[in-house]
């Protein structure tokens, strides 16, 4: 490998002025007629003047270079506010480049529910995998209930500044519950950055812009969302915080919620012998979902009637218990389960320090 030329300055992003996608020119006049006449690109450069062979075009946020030196015709995907021609129509340019059409804002798809009993134990693996922004993900609902729900146990082991960016999600519902440590977060129109600490949770309504700024070492959260497969989109134009505090702002029929555990009282969970700490998710989502924490209050047994909703998800935050559903299933910290509709279940042998996060969709009222 040749040694670098000491007279050549190193390449840095700041030295890059433009980026072009190189495509074969084919018969240049015909290719230009297609891209300029039919697709609305404009010519930026063309040469030689007496017999043009190379041209650079720009349009729709893209810059192209048509050259006889290019080999691959490639595919250009045009995102449209209103699809015309229809999305299933394919065009082919004279140089062989294929043109595909898609909606600019793809709709959120919520698959049909496929209910099933799920038990996910920490001890059973598989090991967690790396995800976005240095986060370590552990899958808690591997069957996804037909693709309708996802739940993840997420950790940031090192702590410190997080390599996150302003982004948002196309979701029906998304809850973040802090199990360990703290993180500094900022959300669109929700005031300055704030700390989410152990026991706290946030409801991220659809499309709210947000960013994780920093975290403590050993930061852990449980994230529950619908649908399982959803898009995360960057917003490079928005700076957070916005300087506004609009707690009642509507985001797709929901509002942002930061539930602080230290400010939420415990109350009896019916006559079950357990008590609960509510989060307010039911009100913030308009009844789409609810989330609360259960703990023993004089009894180590919790008998639960069958539910008739879409999801009943449990995550053991602390302690241990025996889950009685389709057999006896010992639970310990970090274990999770899903109880399908129509099936009764119970907890027994609950340790005194048991704390169980429960998420239900829809809210039980």
Description of the molecule:
The chain has 365 residues and is mainly β. It has 2 domains: 20-103, Roll (2,3-Dihydroxybiphenyl 1,2-Dioxygenase, domain 1); 107-365, Jelly Rolls. Helices cover 4% and strands 41% of the residues. It has 2 helices and 31 strands. The chain has a 7-stranded antiparallel β-sheet. The chain is elongated.
CATH architectural type of the largest domain: Sandwich
* CATH class term of the largest domain: Mainly Beta
What is the third-level CATH name, the topology of the largest domain? Answer: Jelly Rolls
Largest sheet geometry: 7 strands, antiparallel
* Strand segment tally: 31
Kindly report how far apart the N and C termini lie.
69 Å
**Count of helix runs:** 2
Radius of gyration: 27 Å
Q: Runs with pLDDT <50, length 5+?
A: none
List the strand order in the largest sheet.
8-29-26-31-24-23-22
Quote the beta fraction.
35-45%
Helix content: under 10%
Count of separate structural domains: 2
Q: Identify the CATH homologous superfamily of the largest domain.
A: Jelly Rolls
Tell the overall outline.
Answer: elongated
| Mean of pLDDT | 92
Strand-pairing-aware structural class: mainly beta
